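Hello Y.,

Per our agreement to keep a running log of every chain we model this quarter, I'm adding this entry. I've kept the format consistent with earlier entries: sequence first, then predicted structure.
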Amino acid sequence: MASTSVVPADTRFPDGRLPAVDASASAYGDDVRTGPDGHPNADDLAGIAERQRQQGHPGVALQLAERVLTYAPDNDQALKTQISSLSNLGAHRRAEQLREEYQPNWPQATQHRFDADVATVAIRDGTQEQARLERRHHYATSNTELEKSLDSLNANLERFPPGSEASLRTRFDRLVVLRQLNRFEAVIDDYQALQRESANVPTYAKGPVADAYLARHQPQTAARLYREVIDANPQAPLSVRTGYYYALIESEDYEGAEQQLARLNDRTPTWRYRENETAAPVPNWERSEIDRLQVRDAAYRNHEDVALDRATTLYRAAPRNTDVINALATAERARGWYQQAQTTIALAKGYAPNDKATRLNIAENAQDLEAFPRWRATSEALAEQFPSDSAVRRNRLEWLDRQHFSVEGQGNVGSSHGGDAVNGSQDGDYQLRLNSPWSEGGYRAYVEQSYQWGEYDEGAERHGRQGLGVERQWLRRHWWAALSGERLNDDLGLDLGWSQWLGDHWQYQLRTQTQSPETPLRAERDDLDGRLYQTQVTWRQNESREATLTLGALDISDGNLRSDISADLTQRIQASAHHQTRLIGSLSAEHNRDVDADYYNPENQRTAGITLEHDWLTWRRYERSLTQNLALGAASEWESGYGGAPGYEASYGHTWQLTRTWSINYGIGWESHAYEGEREKRWYGQFGFEGVL
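Predicted structure for the entry above:
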């Protein structure tokens, strides 16, 4: 942890080499006398050795002091220089042994410096012990030695004079220990106190401070500190160089992060070569971290296919590496392949059941698979053992969200011109839903309120319903049952549904409603009701491609049977960190029985359309974000008795993620379609929200 700085070349020993052991005094310089025994004067050489140390050449100073001690073992200055040089070179334990053996008469400031050196050694050893125990998954005791080091540092601060070299050094070292103990707030407080005192914090302590700012969601400050450390030492520890990458990512500077990752990739070889070219090279453990970082980088940029390819390549090269297996499972989960990810995670669990990353992967995949008992048990244990880990804390909060009420709502209002076959001159609707907390078994109750209205030539029509229901979700199965009616005492209807995923790619859904809101509003005016029967099958290849087939029939009480079939295919055609574009192709056909009806009721209707959707993540700061949404659509529409006509749609809106659990969305849109030979143009606006109470 000792800082290194560039020092000017030594003019006395420019190549860092001492004269031969038996060289005369003049070989060391004109200012060196010859001693009575023929050796160079011991005091002269000891003085030169100390000046070498003070000028930043502790290696030369150590050699020179030890040469003096071979023929003048009692030379006090040489002994002190030997001990001080060892300390400067990081050999604090050996320096402390010599100090205890010879008990030189140090000034108090020097004694304090050596006490600080002893604490530094303890920190280094404690950090190594922490890493060793964590590799063996002994998390409960991994911080014991570092806690002792912190106690020693605090005791030294009580003894050392404020503002002294030893006191400042101890405060710098304390930043390192606090960071290793994940006490990030304390790191930032101590660092800011040092800044107020205009203390020059060394680079070895700035890396831990940058870690603390990154952990406390201040990535720009973290990036600046990481950059300072790297500029001072391009071969800074890997944690500093990868920390700089993460700080850029979290600052939304993806271009800068790409450049940093390229530098890491270029400067981190797969093998560490030995000076002896005939010896076999040894693996570079840092290369594995860079390879896994490239997997994560692709995922950050919404290139899930690239991330999976890279993770699969790593897995084939190291099939028993737990970190690699977890990276593969995470990449599979990002593609929506939760069952496959569960199989992969089982491998990691078999090799390292107590590994933190493996257990977190288990919790997150259990969440996606709706295996709620496993999710709860795993997240509880992780939160208790790793309370300061941000990923663990987030997963735990998402579980606790299920124990709260939640609310959601969506509303639309429109204005039409040129015809009123469907929407009328003015129209609107809204739906509100309040959900109870989820039970341990995956049950919850809910209440709903819906309302529709439209203004037609013959007058305004309005219809509202209240509903009360219960649902259950578990193991990617979902059923619900609800009663609804006007004031829950008139025209009661039943809504029943079931959906289930069959593996990672197929889902089916069945639904029936005895008082369906799909019934036209004008039919509601005539006290007609509709019974809905619907079947839907979804095929999802991955996050980029999905197809849905829907069959439905609406049996209206006037004898009309409205049957329809529709199919759509969604293909993501572009993706980056802040932009995603999808192309949606759709086909639909509808048939109505030939009955005399006051509502819009063509015998046959067919549509073939295509829609382009684009989402622009315009701004993001961790759990808060703004996304702009744009959609453009065109269709060829055909109606029996009137022939074909084009249809157009366009919409633009915003989605705000206000907090981790609250979001709102709003937008405007325009559409133009032909109904019964008349072109109807409609402007509309929409607003929605959802959140956890």
